[in-house]
Amino acid sequence: MQAIVETLFDIVYLTTVITLGILMMKGNRGNKQYFLFGVMAVLLGLGDSFHLVPRAIALCTTGLQDYTVALGIGKWITSITMTVFYVILYYVWRIRYQVTEHKGLTFAVYIFAIIRIVLCMFPQNEWLSAHAPLSWGIYRNIPFALLGLLVIVLFFQSSQQKNDHSFRYMWLTIVLSFAFYIPVVLFADTIPAVGMLMIPKTCAYVWTVWIGYSAMKSNE
Question: How far apart are the first and last CA of the chain?
Fold first, then answer.
């Protein structure tokens, strides 16, 4: 039953975000922020597919234990693409709110992103192992969380100051995604049921993409 439900959920999720991303890339009418949003959405879907597709195959066939390498590679790719996702979202913020200064923010975004990606490259992560160390899961997610926190604060402040109705909940979608993701990093190996939090985390990302798509449509 889990295999069927989870696989169907993943199919709907991947199809939705990739489709919305393509629609934004094609229908932005020269508006750069929506083109970037589209790229971001497609990257999200394609990146997650490297992990979700092998997981679906594993659940529907012989089990996760027989797909450890594929799942590990998928998690590694997803870790990289999600980092780039937030870098692009930062540029959406800059374009939407016409930010031309604050170069220090850009520096901080790139520092957090680079540190995160470099940490993901270390062999100590043991991506291909069924029992990857928790410590490295924490290390690589510290700069990722700081990157996410920075983007949360920026969207919250700007949407409030500019009375941006369309993006008023953008910050909340990111808060929710991290709120559901962090317990998975910390406890999923010891309490497998915690892994179910990836479902609402995924829904939060769909909400993020939907906000961008809805904003684009409302401006047509």
Answer: 43
Query: Rounded to whole angstroms, how far apart are CA atoms 113 and 84?
Result: 7
What backbone torsions phi and psi does residue 190 show, to the nearest 5 degrees? -95, -30
Amino acid symbol at 146: L
Helix H or strand E segment including 152? helix 134-161
Instruction: Return the SS3 of 134.
Output: helix
Residue among 16, 17, 39, 34 nearest 217 (CA):
34
pTM of the predicted protein model: 0.94
pLDDT digits (tens, 9 = 90+) for 161-207: 999 999 999 999 999 999 999 999 988 878 878 888 899 999 999 99
Exposure string over 160-186, b if 16+ CB within 10 A, otherwise e: eeeeeebbebbbbbbbbbbebbbebbe
